[in-house]
Structure to design on (460 residues):
């Protein structure tokens, strides 16, 4: 990927300045432990966290009386920590304090997700037989002792084939709620599983019944996306004007969709657009509109990296994350952004465009629980389609090196680079400890052709 010389000089200055600041001041880093190689160190991706006899360990939100601390030996791979201390060298961190939440040490895992594909062994689950179920980006092992409530709450979903026969009930799109214990192989042995209802139809609508439509700016005649509420145009966003790039992203996005047509309570019309915006970002709206910035396309190195990004955004839609997060009480900055925008004008970037739509959870950032779910499902999707999932982890290694551990340069409304990369590292190691990806697809000729057609793009 070619970049102007000025960009390289700027990045070098930034990195040097960052190292000086890191060496001089106390900082905090957040991430999932990816390895515990020896008694005195932890790894969070490439960062080595050194502990000593003076390191203080703090266990928060503990329900047990007097259980206010934790030992280093308990910080195994997958534990989320906050380390406070100083950088002694590149990727070398001396921890003065390590804090983690007690709730994550509960051996019983509780989860819920909407089924994105029809279960292969739904009949076995319903009839109390042992079965395996892919759901929530996990492999759930259901045994004869698993407590089950595997019935559709609103009656069987049957499709009429003729006057005399019907197909079996379909479970795709229904919510699965489960609890169980993760085994050494990474799979979850389920203690309880049940079906819940689908989201309501309005979960897949943009607030205020707004619509995103492709159009042409009446003055400049350039192709744009418009925010419309009824007949009123509230804002426009410039589309990238290279046809080959738009077609490639659209076709790749459609390839990544689940095969079932009725995943949600209504038929979703997924649409994929490339936006002229230098920030490394992508976003999915509740109605299935997926927006990909030119800055992100410039940053990815292969098709499997891009496939993961798009699969992550698709999961946000299929899991109705915007609707689920809308009930959260996290502070919203949407109103502040809206106050500085005038309807009917070009919107400067994707973040402002999303703010105009009033999609608070997308603008402010989803909760970590929701981001982790989208990452799990995105990872599972690329694996199922034959892509090398190690590229997703590699992407965040690159982002940490280029933009820093907690930089907002990548997915500014998502968790930090270090948080995302360490979570994916752990998830991949749990589910596939033996690898098995040597023959998986990393990139394609079409991706290379797309990059050539796109040419140099600004990245920031």
């Amino acid at each position: 990927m070619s970049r102007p010389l000025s960009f390289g000089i700027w990045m070098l200055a930034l990195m040097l300045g960052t190292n000086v600041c890191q060496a001089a001041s106390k900082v905090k880093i957040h991430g999932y432990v990816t390895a515990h190689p020896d008694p005195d160190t932890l790894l969070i991706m490439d960062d080595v966290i050194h502990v000593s006899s003076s390191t203080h360990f703090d266990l928060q939100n503990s329900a047990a009386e007097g259980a206010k601390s934790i030992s280093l030996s308990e910080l195994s791979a997958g534990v989320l920590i906050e380390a406070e201390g100083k950088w002694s060298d590149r990727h070398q961190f001396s921890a003065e304090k390590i804090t983690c939440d007690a709730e994550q040490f509960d051996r019983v895992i509780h989860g819920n997700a909407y089924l994105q594909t029809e279960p292969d062994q739904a009949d076995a689950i319903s009839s109390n037989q042992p079965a395996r179920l892919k759901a929530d980006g996990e492999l759930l092992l259901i045994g004869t002792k698993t407590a089950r409530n595997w019935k559709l709450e609103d009656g069987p979903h049957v499709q009429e084939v003729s006057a005399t026969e019907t197909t079996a009930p379909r479970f795709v799109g229904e919510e699965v709620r489960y609890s169980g214990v993760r085994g050494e192989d990474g799979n979850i042995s389920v203690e309880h599983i049940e079906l819940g209802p689908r989201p309501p139809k309005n979960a897949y609508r943009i607030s205020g019944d707004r619509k995103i439509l492709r159009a042409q700016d009446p003055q400049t005649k350039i192709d744009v996306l418009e925010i419309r509420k009824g007949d009123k145009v509230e804002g426009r966003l410039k589309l990238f004007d290279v046809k080959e790039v738009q077609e490639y992203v659209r076709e790749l996005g459609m390839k990544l969709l689940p095969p079932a047509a009725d995943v949600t309570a209504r038929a979703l019309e997924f649409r994929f657009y490339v936006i002229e915006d230098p920030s490394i970002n992508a976003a999915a709206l509740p109605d299935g509109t997926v927006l990909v910035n030119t800055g992100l396309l410039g940053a990815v190195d292969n098709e499997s990296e891009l496939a993961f990004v798009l699969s992550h955004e698709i999961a946000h839609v299929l899991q109705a994350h915007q609707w689920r997060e809308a009930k959260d009480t996290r502070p919203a900055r949407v109103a502040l952004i809206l106050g500085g925008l005038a309807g009917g004008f070009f919107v400067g970037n994707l973040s402002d465009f999303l703010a105009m739509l009033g999609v608070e959870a997308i603008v402010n950032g989803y909760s970590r629980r929701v981001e982790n779910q989208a990452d799990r499902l995105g990872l599972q999707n690329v694996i199922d389609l034959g892509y090398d999932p190690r590229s997703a982890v590699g992407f965040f290694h690159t982002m940490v090196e280029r933009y820093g551990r907690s930089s907002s340069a990548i997915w500014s409304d998502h968790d930090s680079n270090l948080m995302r990369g360490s979570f994916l590292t752990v998830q991949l190691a749990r589910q596939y400890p033996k690898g098995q990806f040597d023959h998986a697809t990393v990139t394609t000729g079409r991706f290379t052709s797309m990059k050539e057609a796109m040419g140099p793009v600004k990245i920031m």
